Amino acid sequence: MKELVKSFEKYGEYRCASCGCPLELRKTDITYLGSVFSVDLPVCPSCGMAFVPEELATGKMLEVEKILEDK
């Protein structure tokens, strides 16, 4: 998970499309396929909108799907 957080550092200069505030890494609960996970994501400190990077959507979530399928 540390490597995932490290890969998010490149999003530090991103800004919220709604507010224009710079995004900050925050622990965020996400729900996926009926399971809840806590993940550090780039989040707008003003409106709370989270940015889900492609690395998470295509990489980690695929791992989660495989784990849940095995249960």
What shape does the CA trace take?
A: elongated
Domain count, please report it. Answer: 1
Give the CATH level 1 class: Alpha Beta
CATH architecture grouping: Roll
Please state the structural category.
alpha+beta
| Mean pLDDT over all positions | 79
Helix content: 25-40%
Q: Tell me how many strands there are.
A: 2
Trace the largest sheet across and list its strands. Answer: 1-2
List the uncertain runs: none
CATH topology description: Ubiquitin-like (UB roll)
Backbone CA Rg: 13 Å
**Helix-strand sequence:** HEEH
Write the layout of secondary structure elements.
Elements lengths: L1 H7 L15 E9 L2 E9 L10 H17 L1
In short:
With 71 residues, this protein is of the alpha+beta class. It has helices at residues 2-8, 54-70; strands at residues 24-32, 35-43. A hairpin with a 2-residue loop joins strand 1 and strand 2 (35-43).
Description:
With 71 residues, this protein is of the alpha+beta class. It has a single domain, classed as Ubiquitin-like (UB roll) (Roll), CATH 3.10.20. 34% of the residues lie in helices and 25% in strands. The chain contains two helices and two strands; from the N terminus they run H-E-E-H. The protein has a two-stranded antiparallel ribbon. A hairpin with a 2-residue loop joins strand 1 and strand 2. The radius of gyration is 13 Å and the shape is elongated. The mean pLDDT is 79.
